[in-house]
Design goal:
With 706 residues, the chain is of the alpha+beta class. The protein folds into 3 domains: 163 residues, Roll (Ubiquitin-like (UB roll)); 390 residues, Creatine Kinase, Chain A, domain 2; 126 residues, Up-down Bundle (Four Helix Bundle (Hemerythrin (Met), subunit A)). It has 25 helices and 17 strands. Strands 9, 10, 11, 12, 13, 14, 15, 16 and 17 form a 9-stranded mixed β-sheet that branches. Strands 1, 2, 5, 6, 7 and 8 form a 6-stranded mixed β-sheet that branches. The relative contact order is 0.10. The protein binds adenosine-5'-diphosphate and magnesium ion (MG).
Length: 706
């Protein structure tokens, strides 16, 4: 029975988390106070305090059935890693005791040699360290039979201090924006102790029957289908979006919710997405590093709970061709520690200095570093999704809403915009409510949309970590804020207002080319964007290349987010990942064709041939249809066999190149193109062959299961 059937959500929400209330309960008053200072103000964590916190955690964890603990981190593979240690230790007399010390909590040592480091770490320096991120609370996870493990979120770095994970740069980028944000707030006279990055990640996914999943090697090995003809009914009637949720799926969602709530994750919204068998889950936003950790847990929970329901959860960006893919919308905003949203326009945005500056800073950052923004959403999987008819194109632009655009145009033209805004309100249309309504209708075609009090980065792929896009949004915005502060810090207080307007004008005029409120899916926009001089990075390989541009390395080094070495290592890992993922796809396709599709087609050929023989004995023209089919099928069979050989050759050739960049280009231009051409043949064959001979579940089977 689900807990929700016997208890209120609030009675068990967060029961598996060492959260604030638990901390208070298990720590002495003074230790609690000290730990809060460590968490909230970034104070140093002393040895004594660490010991006390560790003892409290151990106490709480073992009372809640945990026998092990693990440092939990996010290596550059993009997933999470853990190694379990039991609490068991032997005391001086050889008696078994439970032990978990402050140093166990603070720091762990892991053999880093099997994690990708992009060349940073020579094998003789295989040691890696995991360091507690106390701003993301520890939690307990239980396996089916109830064994519990205490998870301690950590950052992961090498012996030499290089970041080997996705969390360290994220924390550093949050610090960068905190520093520059506070600088600006000080100039503006706004009281704050901290500038916080808030993130809400909407997670899209597909849910299919496990038995179909098991039969499709492509789904099992690559996460997506490598072929499959469109079913007679797709999503053309738009009858899936927000449709009533079937019992099987809502049972699944109820279990997911319960698991997430126990982990203190505020699973909030769930609905059917646009494609058949596609759904979405969104939690309430939280601080960026916590939201990132929690998103990893959400993905893991979706997969695990699906297994329990004989379902498979697909997080690939484009599991089915010609059907909507899945994204992870990264909703991003900045606030003070008092919860004041710095991107909220208020009732008179044109006179809201804080809003104007922070908003303009984001626009300028997106334009100045559009290459990095684009790169942060690049991956082999997302490449198939972007630019389709359902996801943002590869061109970076910001949707601001027309009202906001008009307001900025007026500011730039020196008009008194306050009056205009007041008119909007007077005319009975609530300015912001209207803005909100507009955006939900039209922002769908923009990679980044301003949605009233936050920016929604819609380009991120479903399986990606939220960390990378956040690092980029944080650092690039911090950089523009820093330039803004450099200017405004020199201005006399009585000239500040004028200087702010001048600066907003200057920045907006320079960077508004990135603002586009029209249809981002249209061909006209593609032309217009080029006319405006916006960079168009069509594919991941081109996008990855921009990571090491001088201006980008300078950016990360200036704000102490990443060193050149760390950037280069990440670039190498991205490319390597791209090549390897495509390689696995090619091998899987070759295997499926050789083992099942070619044999099935040959079987059909021989069935037709024997029918033709038999019919010819009866009368000469009786086998006309069979003859025609046999010819068609044989022609496709030939083509398929040919292209598979070409694919094998292309894959080998790419593999022989010593230069990863060249390899990636060969993979992109040869291997992936050939795979598309093979898919065309297979999809035609699928349409011609009898259902009982076709060896794999079809899109109709998979997407319209019971
Ligand atoms: P929309 O309809 O604009 O997509 P929703 O209310 O559905 O907005 O929110 C989508 C996601 O954005 C949720 O995860 C939500 O918690 C998050 N979100 C809402 N406000 C903010 C904010 N100020 N900063 C960051 N994320 C936010
Ligand atoms: Mg949204």
């Amino acid at each position: 029975m689900r807990i929700t059937e016997s208890k209120k959500i609030t009675d068990f929400f967060g029961c598996n988390v060492f959260d604030d209330a638990t901390m208070k309960k298990y720590l002495s008053e003074s230790a609690y106070k000290e730990l809060r200072e460590v968490i909230d103000q970034g104070k140093q964590l002393g040895k004594e305090l660490a010991n006390e916190v560790a003892a409290a955690m151990k106490e709480w964890a073992s009372q809640n059935g945990a026998t092990h603990y693990t440092h939990w981190f996010q290596p550059l593979t993009g997933t999470t890693a853990e190694k379990h240690d039991s609490f068991i230790a032997l005391d001086k007399n050889g008696n078994t005791v439970l032990e978990f010390t402050g140093s166990n909590l603070r720091k762990g040592e892991a053999d880093a040699s099997s994690f990708p480091s992009g060349g940073i770490r020579a094998t003789f320096e295989a040691r890696g360290y995991t360091i507690w991120d106390c701003s993301s609370p520890a939690f307990i996870k239980r396996s089916k039979n109830g064994t519990g493990v205490l998870y301690i979120p950590t950052a992961f770095c090498s012996y030499t201090g290089d970041a080997l994970d996705k969390k360290t740069p994220l924390l550093k980028s949050m610090e960068a924006i905190n520093k520059q944000g506070l600088r600006l707030l000080k100039i503006l006279g706004v009281q704050a102790n901290k500038v916080i990055v808030n993130v809400g990640g909407e997670q899209e996914y597909f849910l299919i029957d496990k038995k179909d999943f098991n039969k499709r090697d492509d789904l099992r090995f690559t996460g997506r289908t490598l072929f499959g003809a469109l079913p007679p009914k797709g999503q053309e009637k738009n009858d899936q979006y927000y449709a009533s949720i079937r019992d099987r799926v809502s049972d699944f969602m109820a279990d997911v919710d319960e698991e997430l709530w126990k982990l203190g994750i505020t699973a909030k919204t769930e609905h059917n997405e646009a494609a058949p068998a596609q759904h979405e889950l969104a939690p309430i936003f939280s601080v960026a590093n916590l939201a990132t950790d929690q998103n990893q847990l959400i993905m893991e929970t979706l997969k695990k709970v699906a297994e329990n329901h004989n379902l498979a959860c697909l997080l690939h960006e484009k599991p089915f061709a010609n059907i909507n893919g899945s994204g992870k919308h990264c909703n991003w905003s900045l606030s003070t520690d008092d919860g004041v949203n710095l991107l909220k326009p208020g009732s008179d945005p044109s006179h809201n200095r804080t809003f104007l500056l922070f908003f303009t800073a984001v626009i300028a950052a997106v334009d100045k570093y559009s290459d990095l923004i684009r790169m942060s959403a690049a991956s082999l999987g997302n490449e198939a999704r972007l630019g389709g008819n359902e996801a943002p194109p590869a061109i970076i632009s910001v949707y601001t809403g027309e009202d906001m655009e008009k307001m900025f145009d007026a500011i730039c033209a020196g008009e008194e915009v306050g009056v205009r805004v007041k008119e909007y309100i007077k005319s009975g249309v609530n300015y912001l409510a209207e803005l909100g309504k507009d955006t939900s209708d039209r922002n769908r075609t923009a990679p980044i949309a301003f949605t009233g009090n936050k920016f929604e980065f819609r380009m991120v792929g479903a399986s990606a970590t939220l960390s990378t896009p956040c690092v980029i949004l944080n650092t690039t915005t911090a950089d523009v804020l820093s330039d803004i502060c450099d200017r405004l810090e020199k201005v006399k207080p009585n000239e500040l207002d004028g200087a702010i307007v001048d600066l907003v004008k200057e920045l907006y005029t320079k960077h508004s080319r990135v603002v586009f409120n029209g249809n981002g899916y249209s061909k006209e926009w593609s032309k217009e964007a080029r006319r405006r001089g916006l960079e168009v990075l069509e594919n991941s390989v081109d996008a990855y290349e921009t990571f090491t541009r001088d201006k980008n390395v300078e950016l990360f080094e200036k704000h102490k987010v990443m060193t050149r070495r760390e950037i280069e290592s990440r670039q190498a890992i991205y490319l390597d990942n791209y090549i390897k993922s495509a390689g696995i796809e090619a091998e899987t396709l070759i295997m499926m064709v050789k083992q099942n599709i070619l044999p099935a087609t040959m079987k059909y050929q021989s069935i037709l041939a024997s029918q033709i023989n038999a019919l010819n004995l009866v009368a000469p023209n009786l086998a006309d249809v069979q003859n025609k089919h046999l010819l068609n099928v044989s022609e496709l069979l030939n083509m398929l066999d040919n292209r598979i050989e070409k694919l094998k050759f292309a894959k080998n050739t790419a593999g022989q190149s010593k230069d990863v960049n060249k390899q990636a280009i060969l993979v992109r231009d040869q291997v992936l193109t050939l795979m598309d051409s093979i898919r065309e043949v297979i999809d035609k064959l699928e349409g011609m062959m009898p259902k009982d001979i076709w060896p794999y579940p079809t899109y109709s089977d998979i997407l319209f299961y019971n």
